[in-house]
Amino acid sequence: xxxxxxxxxxxxxxxxxxxxxxxxxxxxxxxxxxxxxxxxxxxxxxxxxxxxxxxxxxxxxxxxxxxxxxxxxxxxxxxxxxxxxxxxxxxxxxxxxxxxxxxxxxxxxxxxxxxxxxxxxxxxxxxxxxxxxxxxxxxxxxxxxxxxxxxxxxxxxxxxxxxxxxxxxxxxxxxxxxxxxxxxxxxxxxxxxxxxxxxxxxxxxxxxxxxxxxxxxxxxxxxxxxxxxxxxxxxxxxxxxxxxxxxxxxxxx
Length: 253
Hints:
Elements (H helix, E strand, L loop, with lengths): L8 E5 L4 H12 L3 E6 L2 H12 L5 E5 L5 H15 L4 E4 L10 H29 L2 E6 L13 H7 L1 H12 L4 E8 L8 H8 L1 H10 L8 H12 L10 E4 L10
Parallel strand pairs: 1-2, 1-4, 2-3, 4-5, 5-6, 6-7
């Protein structure tokens, strides 16, 4: 299926590893020119070089998205470098699990504030696209409580009404907004790879929770993100797509 993405201009936060890296790789394979950011300059440069080898224009910057002024500047600079924005993917998380004040603040600053103000900075450019798309990467933690209280779950839940509001308010301007909520995603160096090494019994118990008998991959999440960002999903907006292999047990209406 041709997703109609050739020549589109996409911005992705947190684009150097895991889900973010899979997203930028797939966007490039579909012919998108891509701008990405992450905190460390080395991985940004390596990712940009890999994308350029696919024959697309790629630009990258080291940005701490908790610095809202720096995040806004990056969006504007990336839009200038690509000649506009058709797609904005907010893929950032502090992965803060604690209930202490520092965890709450870090989670709110990165998962919520950086997502909101990244989207808001991109919206004026997306409105000029004629077929703009926002995709926010959330988590099934917002949908189902498991184990002890975690700041992460509440922080991620904040994004659901925000994205729905974007979809409603931007629809008339031909800008769509959707959320994807992955379950447990395994990749080398990721949280579940670390858990596998440090606490193998807990890791096995989490595998056993999923009816598929495994965790997801970054590529499986990226497939959904890129489809939702594409013109092929032109009548899909305001949705929260759960990608979890039937891990969560709630019925979603």
